[in-house]
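Handout, page 2. Input:
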Amino acid sequence: NGEAQIAAKVLATVNAPAYGLQRPVSSIGQAVTFLGLNTVRSICMRDLMSESFPLGDPALKQAYRQIWNASALASELCNRLSARLGLADGGALVAQVLLSFLGHLASATLLAAQGAARSQPLAPGAPLLDRTRAAQAALGLGPAEIGGLLLQGWGLPPAIVDPVRAIDRLLVTPPGALADAGGTGRAGQDEADGHRLAVAHLCARLGEQLAGGATLASAGSLAGLAAALTEAEDSFHLRQHLAHPALARLAEHLQAPELAQALMTLQQGMQSQR
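Output:
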């Protein structure tokens, strides 16, 4: 029964306007053919995660919707960029990006329960450092740490929890210091992990910007948003990670028309569901 329910929900999601399919999809196999395994996996994970955050409080409706939309856009962007950049195990990286939004959902829930959201109304697209400081002041922990604790509570091993937590932590993690933020402690592997986490972090933040609805994805807007994010004062360490030669073509890939079109289709579908 559980598998049938998940399959039904996945097919309902795949056939929603957000994915802009030209004809209905009637099986999981077709969904994988149309969308790819990583996208279908992300849809399954988002559906499972949503059961932990039921929309019971009307005050949280807008925040939840924006965070969920950001996670969908970020995971789709990461899926496509990781393939273009040749990053190893792109499917795992996409899953980590999606899971990194758990802490933001939990923080929004806890802040609303405390009434802190009204005194510190930071939108999901506000700078990550500002949101982290607000959550730390009100809750004692930032979203990355809250999300890590939640994953640990679900019984997930450190091999999964640490890289998820490290995505947001990259904001304050210089290259070479990944052993304390989810790295392996091996220089060569930590360098590769830095590439992956930098792409994951950028995708998560771009997803948040696009989910706000003020900007439709295009080759120019994606490159512009990425430039603004990486040039921000609090993105010093992110710039260092992204400057590695292995990611030299990142800006070029962000301007690919098919990448922008896929994200724009998602955005338009999300807007039609409001």
